[in-house]
Amino acid sequence: MDYALAIVTAVLLLAGAFFALVAAIGIARLPDLYTRMHAASKAGTVGSGLLLLAAGLYSGELAVLARALAGFLFFILTAPVSAHLLARASHISGYFPADISVRDDMRMR
Amino acid sequence: MITPAAIVSAAAIAALGILCIALFVTVWRVIAGPTLPDRILALDMMTGIAIGFIAVVAVRTGFSLYIDIAIALGLVGFLATVAFARFVLSRRAVASGTQGRGE
User: Fold this and answer.
1) pTM for the full predicted model
2) How many CB pairs below 8 A link A and B?
3) Interval A53-80 mean pLDDT
4) Which B residues in the span 43-102 are in contact with A, Cβ-Cβ below 8 Å?
5) Among A5, A19, A56, A105, which one is least packed by beta carbons within 10 Å?
């Protein structure tokens, strides 16, 4: 039982850190703001959420696990809101997608 | 014989190393990012990586209070991103307002 908990925690820790690294590579490599936002707000949220879940599971207390799950749920709820708000504000302010993009529906109107 | 604590400790050290690389790559985007929204997005991502650091430290030290700190940091990061988005909008309004007056 101890070994099972330790292995699950280790896998969650490594998976969360890997997701954070994927998000960071996406932020560094993708061509414009909107594609970078796609990397950061999906992979970044899952990365920090999995790490929180690992901390909650390894503590072995139900109250701590419930708080970790509440934090994960909070990040999942707020990440799309902030990403959409930032994307909308920057598109209205005149930061447009890179030239490599195929189409931009908000500019065609 | 490998103990469960040794497995978790090794995984936590590896996670800290990977998170360090991710943090430095994101800091590079904050410095280099060509536009203001790029920097705001990278700052938001840095908040997420800091939450990950806090969770790994919670696993290593065994203090469960760190999870509350991580939740509070997530709240602050969300509010900061919302405020920066409003700032991007209002800065554009101010810029076009002065342009209109100049003409």
Assistant:
1) 0.88
2) 188
3) 91
4) 44-45, 48-49, 51-52, 55-56, 58-59, 62, 64, 66-68, 70-71, 74-75, 78, 81-82, 84-86, 88-89, 91-92
5) A105
